[in-house]
Amino acid sequence: MNSTYEHNRRAWNEQVRAGNEWTRPFSTEVIERAKRGDWSVVLTPLEPVPRAWFGELSGKDVLGLASGGGQQCPIFAAAGACVTSFDASDEQLAQDRHVAERDGLALRTQQGDAHDLSVLADPSFDRVFNPCSTCFIER
Q1: Is the dihedral of CA 106, 112, 116, 122 positive or negative?
Q2: Which of 25, 32, 83, 114 has the CB geometry, 3.0–4.6 Å to 77, for a possible disulfide?
Q3: Count of alpha carbons within 13 Å of 91, Cβ hemisphere only?
Q4: Residue 123: inside a domain, yes or no?
Q5: What is the CATH number for 73?
Q6: Is 74 in contact with 41 (CB distance < 8 Å)?
Q7: Could you read off the pLDDT of 36-86 as tens digits, one per residue?
Q8: The whole model's pTM is what?
């Protein structure tokens, strides 16, 4: 692994331990609303992504690219998507697994470097959600 990857993995693990807002899993209530079709996700702290950008998610393969933390990926899974959460941070992925187990969601997690997706068994997806994390990827 490259040094940027390892730096980011450690830094985001620390953010989980510090309780950073982007690492705190959504509540069961938020997930239950998403199961009923009432959901949104954000790319910035202030503005939800327009739902029309996603189209129908039910049954779609969605990659959460560097999107761990128990927030967006569980929302997509609750909306009916087949979700793979791919993140450098083992602790961010643990947040996704926690929400999935707690709320009965099917969600796969894969640890790795977003710069190299070759570790994915099938790297084709219907949708990719990347919450402003490309700024952490080595060029």
Answers
A1: negative
A2: 83
A3: 16
A4: yes
A5: 3.40.50.150
A6: no
A7: 999 999 987 788 999 999 999 999 999 999 999 999 999 999 999 999 999
A8: 0.91
Helix (H) or strand (E) holding 109: strand 107-111
Place of tokens 């807002």: 21
CA distance 84 to 62: 6
Whether residue 1 is predicted with pLDDT greater than 60 in this model: the reply is no
Domain count, the chain: 1
How many whole angstroms separate alpha carbon 65 and alpha carbon 73?
A: 9
Is 19 inside a domain boundary? yes
Residue 17 lies in a domain: yes
> Which H helix or E strand runs over 2?
none
The helix-helix angle for 3-18 and 90-103 (nearest 10°) equals: 50
